[in-house]
């Protein structure tokens, strides 16, 4: 079996010949090859691939700002459980341990054909220190940026001193506040909610977030309080590109989001694993609006993670599936690890565009001998461990200081442009004809597989389908992929080459 090195670099004459081919002539040749496929057994899926239409990039549309409903309360009163109940799905991470939610996390919700933004927050505590103080600060920001507030209290515990502190905070904002008496699981427990009248916020609404009891009545009341258009939120942007920030814990993802947003959007702390829920934020960079998604750090082995960390890893994978391009952050002060490579593999498996961001580069900029040695070792690690993604754009940044952050935008645009690229069928078949003439597939078992026809079935990522008379070696498919990159770039995008082996129709 031939090695990848058996195929030489692209012949410049071949590139010139392909560039000189008239597009109309190439289209005619492809049409003739396509007609020749009628002699082979084709199924409905084959025909769908051959008739695949071009996908156009999403256009940016501006929509009215949705009203914002923030959910606040002290730790472990069931805020995230109520969020999941309103959304109708398990979106927020929920665990019996207090303090699981740390950032303010936005979700799109709908009730009775009215849409609104639901904001889950971490537990608010007075005189909190360390990471808990940052969590409380995010809850206060959520109140300021909301049109109305759901104040959740544990009805089985009754009003506490912390609850009274939250009431003072809410009164100072002059926002509409709805008092929610949670954990009222049946009618016998409803009298427990009566003690919450003492908080002075009006009628407490008894609900059970876990069982759904009373939530429909609560939402009916919420719609009478929420405005049609938000007075605090920005216009929605309908089609910004979605960027997922990935990396192992404590690599600087949240710092990068905060620096790009120009505000303390998410909690940043030296404690590894601070982020647990994916956090969406629309950010304007270089005159364009992007949706950045901060995700939980992916730990060494997700199947060994427990509790909140396990569900946070699942949500990170789900956030990647919704994204278009992934920025994988790598800490340059530490050796590239198996964990970093595994995260990159996760992006490749998802088919998303890829940008590599080498973070904390400011710590390697001095002329100290140790820094020079680390830079030398880093380049060697990149050559050895990241050779399979040599096509991904690289940027050296400092999320903490914002240094070279402007270089991230051209890298994102290049990766997304490659991800969206579609090659005309005529040009692609002309390339295949030239490649197979110059380097035919090796003979296997006395037979030589032929490529009958090729087409790009889809973009995002670019996916090519080859109709062949036999199985193509993986090395030969990699050879075709390499030639596609040499001719058309595809920087920052994975390329998928599939094949469909077909036999002649029986006469």
Walk me through the structure.
The structure is a single chain. The chain is of the alpha/beta class and 507 residues long. The protein has 3 domains: 4-55 and 422-501, K homology (KH) domain (GMP Synthetase, Chain A, domain 3); 63-225, Rossmann fold; 240-416, P-loop containing nucleotide triphosphate hydrolases (Rossmann fold). The chain is 34% helix and 19% strand. α2 (23-36) packs across α13 (425-438). It starts with 11 loop residues before the first helix and ends in a 6-residue tail after the last strand.
Short description:
The protein has helices at 12-20, 23-36, 44-50, 79-87, 131-144, 161-173, 215-225, 253-261, 307-322, 338-350, 369-385, 408-420, 425-438, 474-488, and strands at residues 62-63, 68-72, 105-111, 114-120, 148-154, 177-182, 204-206, 236-237, 241-246, 279-285, 288-294, 325-331, 353-359, 394-396, 451-458, 463-468, 496-501.
Per-chain topology:
Blueprint: H1 12-20, H2 23-36, H3 44-50, E1 62-63, E2 68-72, H4 79-87, E3 105-111, E4 114-120, H5 131-144, E5 148-154, H6 161-173, E6 177-182, E7 204-206, H7 215-225, E8 236-237, E9 241-246, H8 253-261, E10 279-285, E11 288-294, H9 307-322, E12 325-331, H10 338-350, E13 353-359, H11 369-385, E14 394-396, H12 408-420, H13 425-438, E15 451-458, E16 463-468, H14 474-488, E17 496-501
Parallel strand pairs: 2-4, 2-5, 5-6, 6-7, 9-11, 9-12, 12-13, 13-14, 16-17
Antiparallel strand pairs: 1-8, 3-4, 10-11, 15-16
Helix pairs in contact: 2-13
Keywords: GTP-binding, Nucleotide-binding, Repeat, Ribosome biogenesis
GO biological process, one term: ribosome biogenesis
Binding site for GTP 1: 73-80, 120-124, 182-185
């Amino acid at each position: 079996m031939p090695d990848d090195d058996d195929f030489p670099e692209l012949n410049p004459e071949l590139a010139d010949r392909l560039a000189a081919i008239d597009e109309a002539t190439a289209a005619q040749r492809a049409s003739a090859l396509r007609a020749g496929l009628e002699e082979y057994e084709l199924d409905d899926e084959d025909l769908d691939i051959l008739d695949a239409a071009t996908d156009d990039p999403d256009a940016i549309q501006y929509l009215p700002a949705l009203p914002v409903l923030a959910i606040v309360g002290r730790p472990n009163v069931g805020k995230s459980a109520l969020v999941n109940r309103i959304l109708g799905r398990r979106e927020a991470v929920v665990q019996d341990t207090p303090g699981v939610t740390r950032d303010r996390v936005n979700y799109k919700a709908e009730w009775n054909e009215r849409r609104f933004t639901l904001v889950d927050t971490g537990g608010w505590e007075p005189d909190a220190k360390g990471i808990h103080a940052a969590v409380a600060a995010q809850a206060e920001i959520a109140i300021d940026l909301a049109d109305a507030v759901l104040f959740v209290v544990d009805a089985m515990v009754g009003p506490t001193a912390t609850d009274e502190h939250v009431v003072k905070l809410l009164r100072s904002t002059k926002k509409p506040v709805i008092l929610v008496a949670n954990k009222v699981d049946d009618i016998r427990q409803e009298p427990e909610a009566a003690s919450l009248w003492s908080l002075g916020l009006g009628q407490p609404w008894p609900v059970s977030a876990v069982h759904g009891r009373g939530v429909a009545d609560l939402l009916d009341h919420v719609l009478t309080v929420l405005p049609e258009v938000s007075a605090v939120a920005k216009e929605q942007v309908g089609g910004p590109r979605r960027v997922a920030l990935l990396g192992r814990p404590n690599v600087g993802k949240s710092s990068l989001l905060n620096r790009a947003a120009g505000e303390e959007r998410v909690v940043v702390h030296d404690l590894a694993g601070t982020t647990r829920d994916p956090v969406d934020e629309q950010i304007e960079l270089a005159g364009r609006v992007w949706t950045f998604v901060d995700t939980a750090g992916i730990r060494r082995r997700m199947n060994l993670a427990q509790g909140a960390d396990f569900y946070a890893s699942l949500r990170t994978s789900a956030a990647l599936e919704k994204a278009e391009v992934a920025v994988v952050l790598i800490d340059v002060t530490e050796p590239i690890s198996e964990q970093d490579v595994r995260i990159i593999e996760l992006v490749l498996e998802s088919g998303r565009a890829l940008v590599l961001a080498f973070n904390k580069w400011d710590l390697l900029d001095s002329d100290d001998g140790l820094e020079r040695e680390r830079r030398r070792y880093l380049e060697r690690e990149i050559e050895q461990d990241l050779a399979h993604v040599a096509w991904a754009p690289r940027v050296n940044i400092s999320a903490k200081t914002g240094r070279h952050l402007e270089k991230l935008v051209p890298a994102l645009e290049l990766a997304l442009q490659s991800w969206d690229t579609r090659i005309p069928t005529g040009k692609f078949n002309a390339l295949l004809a030239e490649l197979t003439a110059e380097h035919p597939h090796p003979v296997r078992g006395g037979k030589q597989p032929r490529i009958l026809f090729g087409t790009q079935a889809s973009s995002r990522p670019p996916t090519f389908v080859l109709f062949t008379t036999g199985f193509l070696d993986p090395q030969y498919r990699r050879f075709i992929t390499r030639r596609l990159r040499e001719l058309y770039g595809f920087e920052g995008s994975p390329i998928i080459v599939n094949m469909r082996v077909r036999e002649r129709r029986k006469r």
